[in-house]
Structure formats: C-alpha cells, structure tokens
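Preliminary data (for renewal application), magnesium ion complex.
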Amino acid sequence: MFKRIFGGIGGQLLRSFLIVILISIGVLSFIVQQIPFHRINEIAAQMSQRQALQLAPLFVSYYELAGSWDQAQTLVEQFNQPLPENLAFEPKVGFLRNVNWSETLITNRIIITDATNRVVADSGKLLTVGQRLPTEFETQAVLLEQETAVIGQLVFVSGITPEFVGLLRNGFVRTIMWGGGLAAAIALLASMFLTRRIAQPVRQLNSAARVLSTGAAMVPLTVSGTDEIGELTQSFNDMADALEKQKQLRRQLVADIAHELRTPLSIMQLNVEALEDGLQPQKETAVSLHTEIATLARLIDDLRLLSLADTGGLRLEPELIDPVAFLLHLVQVWQVNAQAKQINLLAEVPGTLPNIQADQGRLAQVMNNLISNALRYAPTGGQVLVGAKESGSEIVFWVSDNGPGISAEALPHVFERFYRADPSRSRESGGSGLGLAIARRLVLLHNGRIWVESSPEQPTTFYIALKSSPASGPLPSAHP
Ligand code: ATP
Ligand code: MG
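Predicted structure:
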C-alpha cells in the first residue's frame, strides 16, 4: 500500500503536491509572523491614556460635587454594564469561535485612587478598596487635579489585553495549520485519482511492451481519452500492429526465398542424378546446370541489392544524364533481343529534354527490367514502346507493350517482392518476381515515382518520373 502510494508516478505526484502545500503553509506562517501583533497592544495603551485624560475632568467634577470618593465604586461600575443581546460580540465562524468571550472580551476597566495612591474604586472589582495601586498601573495613571491640589489618580485599562492579542495570533496560526492539513488530505486524494488516470495506462503500456519484447502477439490496448496518454496508447497499438505486419512480411520473405532457392536446386539435383545414371548427355547437363547456377547467382545478387537498399547501405553515384541519349542507347542495346522475338521495339523521344541527375547504372537497371518485362509479355509480332517526355518539373520515362496486360487484382501487387501474376509463365522465362521490387526501391532512392497503368487486353505502361536537374545543359559524355 505504502509503495503503491509513494512509489512510481503516483508517488511523484503526491510528493510534488505535498511539497507545494508545505511551502505554501511555510510562506503563510512566515507572513502571519510578520503581522505586528505587538503594535495592537501599543495602540491600545495609547488609546487608554487618551480615554483616561478625557474622563479625568468628569471624575474631578464628581469629586467636587460629592465631596469624597465614598460612592466612587458605584459610579465606576456603571461603565461595565453588560452589553444588550443585539450588540454582544460573539463571532460564530473561524478561529475566533473557541475564544471564551465572557472573560477575554474587550472589557475596559476604570481604577480610581485617592491622593494617597490608595484604591477607592475598581470597575473590574479585582483590587480591594484601600489597597495601594499596584506598580504595573502607575505608568498609565492620570492625575485628578483640582485647582490647587491633587485629589487622586485615574487608570483606564484597555480590554485589548496581551492575552487577547495572543489568542488572535494563535487563531491565525491554527487556521493556517488546519487549512494546510486539509489541503494535504485533498492532495492525497487528488494524487490517488490522478495516479489512476496517468499511472494505470502507463503500467498497461509497460506490461504490453514487455509482452511485445518477448516476440509474442499483443492484444490491442484500450485507448482511453484523447489526451497525450490516449495518443501514446494509440501510437503504441499502431506500432505493435506495424511490428506484427513486419513479422509476417519477414516470415513470408524467408518462405519465398527458400522456395526460390529450392526450384533451381531441385533441377540441378535432377540433372546430376540423370548424369550419374547415364540418362542424360554430359553436354546437355552442363548447359542446364549452368543456367540454374546463373539463376541462383542472379537471385542472390537481387536479394543482396534489396537488402542493401533496405538498410540504407546502397550508395547512388548521381551524374547529369541526357534522357534522350540515354533512352536511344538502351533501345539500341535491346534491339537484337526484340528482333529475335520479332517484336517491334521503338523509341519515342523529343529532340531534346532537360538533363536529369541520376545514377546512370541504377537507372539503366530499372529500365532494363521494364523493357525485359515488356519484351517477355509482348506477343510475337507485337510492339514495345520506350519513351521520355517532360512533364512540369519532371522527366517521365515510360515502357509500354501490347501484351496480355495485368489484371486488376494483380495490379496493386506487381511491385511486391517475389510477386508474379502468373507464376508458371514467369518461371518458364526465368523471372523471380524481384525486378519491379528492385526498380521501385531504386526509383525511391532517386526521390522519384514509379507506377503502372494496365488492364487486360490494353497496352501495359510502366512510368518513372524523376526531377529534371536545374543545372541542365549539354553533357560531354552522358552515356556510354
Ligand atoms: P524478375 O524481374 O525478377 O526477373 P519478374 O519479371 O517476374 O522477375 P517483376 O519484374 O518484378 O518480376 O514483375 C512482377 C510481375 O509483374 C511479373 O511476374 C508479371 O506477372 C507482372 N508484370 C510485370 N511487367 C508486366 C508486363 N509488361 N505485362 C504483364 N505483366 C507484367
Ligand atoms: Mg522483371
């Protein structure tokens, strides 16, 4: 319980609250100490003196009329008549409530002495008639004088006594202490409430993170509220979701790679077995083995390239390229291949185009894959168009063929690794389904875009858009 309250975020909140409250109480107490309570007594004493001076002529006149102080006690008691109900000072609230007013209330007192300094009257009835005036009153005593002689002294004792002022001060301090205690209790409750609101989701996130770190799948956390904690929980769920997807992709990738390696290896195994059994001529076996080894080597090269690109290890070597010369050269290289398949391979380029900044080898790799795909899928006697044009600030390359096209279901997947719309057909022609995945990676590395437009029986066109370079101009040796 103690650990629950004082440990973790809840404890930190509680500690912060308590520190703030203690500081506040300290500051308030200090301020109360600074209130000049002693001044109240000084002022009360001054006022008493003035009262005494004002009352003195009244008592002198009384003495002249009465001729003695004999009835003085009766007279002074008139000053201490109890207050009528409606004027009684009985505060009902706060720190003054516990004060015993009948004893401590501001009740003024009048003491009269005769010329020999003996008490003749005391409204407070604390001194007896005939006793000497105690020395503590002597300083505030006012002389009662007739024209020629002193007839006595008058002392006016204020009801605002030091005890009363002490009560006032203690009341202040007690109130602050009680207030502080109450505030601390409220802080405890508030911190418990806040702890539940803040620490609970954090604990939930923590245990979910532990589950994730063990590699296990995680049940999505409930998102409570739209505050930062809610957002954090949502982000955590998204992250867990992304991790799960990544995990599945990785599993799929490993399965795909195993599958891709297995096929050429099986063929190689069959070939070697046939060779051992003497069923297949050596020359034929060698050619077949050579083909499969080449397939494996290419697959490994492609995978290496992709993993390099994924981990940011693939460095581009950009240079200024003249798109027109670049395309014409590519078409020329592929012409022999196209003619062998009786496909009409044509370049569609304007006279000039702005230069682009790109890694020529990587860009050629992308275009080669697009052209080889197009030549693979274009029918005998068909046509493949390779072109480039300027569009806004970009140079758009395209490769188009009049082959069977790509179905709507296959279209969103053609850039995925190992994806083949028609596995049997691609397998025959040696494709592993990595070409377009690599093309997309390389184009993205160039900050470019790649997309495809196709529908069955319509020409299939792949596009690549790259930013044209602001520093365009004639290139001394833009292409090999
Ligand atoms: P690789 O390029 O690795 O040798 P591949 O050519 O099969 O193998 P990609 O270039 O990535 O792989 O193409 C993926 C798939 O997209 C192909 O298998 C094919 O189904 C489809 N595809 C690509 N280009 C075309 C096209 N011009 N016409 C029809 N389908 C195409
Ligand atoms: Mg390909």
